[in-house]
Design goal:
mainly alpha; 190 residues; 8 helices; elongated
Amino acid sequence: MTDQNIKKLVTAALLAAMTCIATMMIKIPTPTMGYIHPGDCFVLLCGVVLGPVSGALAAGTGSMFSDIFSGYLSWAPATFLIKALTAGIAGFLFHRHVSGRSSARSRSLALAAGGIAGEAVMTAGYFLYETGLAAFGTGDFTGASLAAGIASSAAGIPFNLVQGIAGIILSILLLPVLMKVPDIREWSRT
């Protein structure tokens, strides 16, 4: 394993831990029994800094552990997948649009575009998972239970959108700080 691979592995572990901590430390409860948190900022930064694949694994792992540690065990598998997709999409779009460009403005615009797409997937993913949980939770999967699941899950959409927008804004604000680290600056250009 090269020094560069070790640096990237350690960075992935640190970003996963920061994602977990940011998700757990500041929780704004919502009426839907969920919470809004700044962890999505680090989910997006995982994809940007590490690239779509490694970033997806780091973001999914950190987010999943925050669910496990916070007592949301039934959400952990879905959170892993949803946050991994969020980071992967954001990272893919960021790297596709930045490729070789080094201006702060181009990076911010690429992060905003990737963040919007990634956070849309996050919102849809949690809506679908919660709909399924609510429908199957009745023990009788019928059209009525599905309709009730859709209705109850729709209430969480605005809160997930707020969380996503906050994550995009915070990640755009933190990206210039991270770009001062030579390895991160190099990884974000490829």
